[in-house]
Amino acid sequence: MAQRSRSPQHPDEAPDDRAGLDRRTVLGYLLAAPTLAVGVWVGADALDGQVAEAAVPSLPQPEDLFDLGDLQNLAAAPTAGLISVQVHSDGTASFAVPRAEVGQGMTTAVAMMIAEEMDLPLDKVRVTLADARPELLMNQLTGGSNSMRSIYLPVRTAAAVARQQLVSTAAGLWDVPASELTTRDGVVTYRSERSASYGSLATAAAGTRTTPVSAQLKSASQFTVLGTPRGRVDALDIATGRKQFGMDLQVPDAKPTMVRRPPTINGTVVSVLNTNTVRNMPGITDVAVVSHGVAVRGATFGQCIDALRALEVTWGPGTVDGESDDTVLAKLKAAALPMVVPPLLTERVDAEFTFAFASNSPLEPDNAIADVRSDRAEIWSSLKVPIVAQREIATQLGLPAESVTVHVVEGGGSFGRHLFHDVAAEAAEISQKMGKPVKLSWSRTDSFRQGRTHPMCVSRVRATYALGNVLSYEQRHTSVQTDFGHGLGEMITATAAALPVAGNLSFAETIFELTQSSPYDFGVTTQLLNEVPLRFNTGSMRNIYSPNVVCAQELVVDRLAAKMGKDPVAFRRAFLKDDRLRAVLDKAAEAGGWGASLPPGVAQGIGLHAEYRGGVAALVEIDCRPETVNRKVKDGVTGPRVSKALMVVDAGFAINPRGLEAQMMGGLQDAMAMCLTSSLHIKDGIPLEGSWDNYFYTRQWNAPLDLRVIVMPPTTGKPSGAGELGVAPAFAAIACAYARATGTMPTSFPINHGALGFEPLPLEPSTPQSPTDGLDRAY
Amino acid sequence: MSSHTFKLNGRQITVEAEDDVRLLWVLRDLLGVTGPKHGCALGVCQACTSHINNRAFNPCSVPVSQIHPGDEITTIEGLPATVGKDLHPMQEAWLEHDVAQCGYCQPGQIMAAVAKVRQVAAEGREITDGDLDEIRNICRCGTYARIREAIKAGAKKM
Known about the structure:
The complex is a heterodimer.
Chain A: E1 25-30, E2 37-41, H1 62-65, H2 68-76, E3 82-87, E4 93-97, H3 106-118, E5 125-129, H4 147-174, E6 181-184, E7 187-190, E8 194-197, H5 198-201, E9 211-216, H6 235-239, E10 255-260, E11 268-272, H7 275-279, E12 284-290, E13 293-298, H8 301-310, E14 313-316, H9 325-335, E15 347-355, E16 358-359, E17 367-372, E18 377-381, H10 386-397, E19 404-408, H11 422-434, E20 438-441, H12 444-450, E21 453-454, E22 457-466, E23 469-480, H13 488-495, H14 507-515, E24 524-532, H15 546-563, H16 568-575, H17 579-591, E25 602-611, E26 614-623, H18 626-629, E27 641-650, H19 657-677, E28 682-683, E29 686-687, E30 706-711, H20 727-742, E31 748-749
Parallel strand pairs in A: 4-5, 10-20, 15-31, 18-19, 23-24, 27-30
Antiparallel strand pairs in A: 1-2, 1-9, 2-3, 3-4, 6-7, 7-8, 10-13, 11-14, 12-13, 15-22, 16-21, 17-18, 17-20, 22-23, 25-26, 26-27, 28-29
Helix pairs in contact in A: 2-13, 3-4, 10-11, 15-20, 19-20
Chain B: E1 2-8, E2 11-17, H1 23-30, E3 50-52, E4 55-57, E5 72-74, H2 89-96, H3 106-122, H4 129-133, H5 144-157
Parallel strand pairs in B: 1-5
Antiparallel strand pairs in B: 1-2, 3-4, 3-5
Helix pairs in contact in B: 2-5, 3-5
C-alpha cells in the first residue's frame, strides 16, 4: 500500500546523520552589538515543502501534498527580518521569539533548542515574546500548530552560530586551534589548560558590523536536551503566583475598565440615559460610548461591574438577532453541497451529523491594556497576530503604524481566541475616547456571549462498498462561516499561486482543503466545505474543522466495518494509506488492550487522525451505565464518563516529550467537552451560556482516572505540530465508544445539547453581579 | 469609603475601600496581589481560590466588609510561609509533575488542593478519587490528570 498522506515519511530528510555533515552546515549573521548577538533569517530555512510521490488508489487530496503549516512556511520564506540570539555578560542567552505563548509550551521548547545548540544549561536561557515586528511580514502568526515546524531550524541555527562564535573568540584569545576547544554547560575549554565562561567571552565575541558566519548543527545522535522530557521553564513562576499574565500587568494609570454590552450579538448603542449619574458612582472616573457598548473606567473591576449594571441604555439591533439553533440548522441543511455518487446499485452508509456552536474562550477573561495619546499608542495584550493588530489599530486610531507599539504578553490560554485582536482594538478605542490609559477586561459572560465561537456545522457522509472494498467516500461539510480575518487570509492571498488548490476557493475553503483528507483508501474520495454567511463572531477553535470532520468520518468507518463484518481496528488497518498512522494504531490497540471484555454499558472506541505532519491514535473506554451517567454534581453535568484513555502520538520528533504529553491530555479534554458536554445554545441572536456553570467544559468529575500518553520514537526527525493534533482523534474515539456502549450511533454533538442543563443568566444587564456568599462555601 | 483591617500573608494590613467591593478586587486592584486570578467573578471557575483562616474560599464572592481584623487571608504568595519554607510541599509536587500548561488556574488549583487535603486529613482519611472529583476548579487547558497526580503526591508530604 502506498505510503503517503498527510504525515508522509521523509527518508531523505529524516535523521540528519544519513545525509552527512553538509546538511547540517547552517548560516547566520554576527550582528553589531555590545555583546555577542547572532541573527538568522526566519522562515527560509524552515521550509519543508512536500513532494508528491507515485499515484495511489485514492487520488491525493490537496492536504496530502501540502498542508496549512506548509502554507505558513511558504508565506514566511521571502520575508525580511532577522531573529536573534543574544549572549550576555552574566552568561545567559536571550531570545525574543516572534510567537505567542498561551500554554502550549512554546517558550520551553525554544529554550531547549537554544540550550542544546549552545551547550548552555536550560536555566540560563531567557525566552521572551517579541513585540509586533512588521518587518517580519506574516511570519509572526501563532496558529495552525506551526510554531515548532517553522522556527525549529532558524532558532537552532542562531544558537549554533553563537556557540561557534564563542569558540572562535576563545581560540583567538588563547591562540589555539578552535577545533581543539570543547563546550559544555556554558563554558569553553581547551584541554585541561584553559577555560572561560560564555559570559566572560560575550563582549569579546561581539561583532562590530554584520558578518556572515557558518556553523554546524548537532546531529540528532548528539542531542542531550532536545527529545528529552523537561518541565516548563515558567513552572516555578506559575506555582508561586509570580507569572504575570495580561490581567496582572501594572501599567501606570491603566485603571480597570469594562463594557456594558447589548442583549444580542454585535448590537449597538442608541442612547445612554444616565451617563452623569454613573460617572459619579464610587470609584468611577469615566463613561464612554463605544462601537458595541458603553465603557466604564474605575478604581476596581468590582466598581466597574456596579457601574455598567447601573447604566440605562437603549440598544440597536445586532447582526444575527433573528437566529436561534433551529433557524441556523435549517439554513445549514439547505446549503449542503450535493453528493456525486448516486445512491443506487451498491450498498452504502449515509449519515448526517450536527455539531452545535462552541466557545473557544480561555480561562483568562479577554483583556488588553491601551495607552493612547495624541501622537502615539502602546498596547499590551496576548496576540497571536500582533502585526495585523498593530496595523489595524493604527488605522482605527488615525496614527501611523510605527507610532503604535504592540507588546505581546503571555496569555492564560487561547484555543484560537487570540488570533483576533478585537479586545485590544476595543481597549484602544476606549483609551482614545477617554484620553486615559485603560486596562480593559471583558466579563466572563461577555466572553461567552459576545466572544468568538466555533460555528455550528453539519457533516454529511456517504460511503459505498461492495465485495469487501469501499468504493467511494464523500463528505459534505456545511458550516456557518468561520472568520479568518486575522491574517491567515493575507498569507493565502500572498501565496495563492503556489497552492495546489485550484480555482477561486474562499479562504475558508482553502484552509479546509489544506487541513482535511481521508487517511483511508476508500476509492473515489471527496471532502468539500460549503459555508453559510451568517454574521456570528466566529473564529478558529483548536484544530478548526478536524474534530467535526474526523468524528463524522470515524463513526462512518465503524459503521462500514460493522456492515462488512470486520473488527474496527482490523478494518482501519486494512484500509489505511499511511504507515505512520498504522504504527500508532497498532501501538494503541496493543498497549490499550483493544477488545477487552467489558460490562454492558461500557465500551471502547478508537479514533485516528493525521495532520500537521504528525499522527495520533486515541483509544478510549466510556462508561455509560446509569450509576455513572446519573451521578449528581451541584451546578454541573455528569453523564457518560470517559473512564480510560490512551493517546499514542507520532510527532515526527518530539522536542519535549513531557510538553507533548500535556498537549495530548489537553486535546483529549477538549474532545470530551465537544463530544459530551460543551456547547452554546443560540436563542434570539445570542448564546444563553454566561458562566462556566453553563458552558460545561470538563471538570475533575468528568476526567478519566486512567490516562496514558505514549510518545512514539522519532520517525521523520522533524517536529510536527502538536498543540491541536490530539483533539480530532480523541473526539472520534469517544463518539465511537459511545455508539458501541449505547448501541446507537450519536448524530448530534455534544450529546447532551438537547437538554438545557442550567437556568440562563439575564441578558440585561450584560454582566451579572458577583456573589456575596463566598464565606458560606469555604472548605 | 472605609478602612478594612485584616491579616494578609502574615502581615496585619489596613486598606481603604467601599464596603461592598469584593475582596478579590481589594487584593488585585488596590493591593497589587495578583496571585489570585480573575477568571469569572462569579464564584464559579475558582481561579481566585485563596484561604481564609486555613479554609479555601473565593475572594471574588466576599465583600471586603465581611473580613474582620482577626481574619487571616493567605494567597498563593503567602502559602510557603505557612510551612516556613521557600515552597509548600504542594507547590513542589506541582513542579515535580510539571502540572501547569498556561498556568492561569494553577495558583487557585494549588490553594484548593491544600485545603482539600487538610479537609480529608481532618476526617482522618487518605485522599480518594472521589475527593478529587469534588474539586470544582476549572483548568481550560485540561491538565486534570497531572493535577490529580500532584495532589496525591503533595498530600503524602504535607
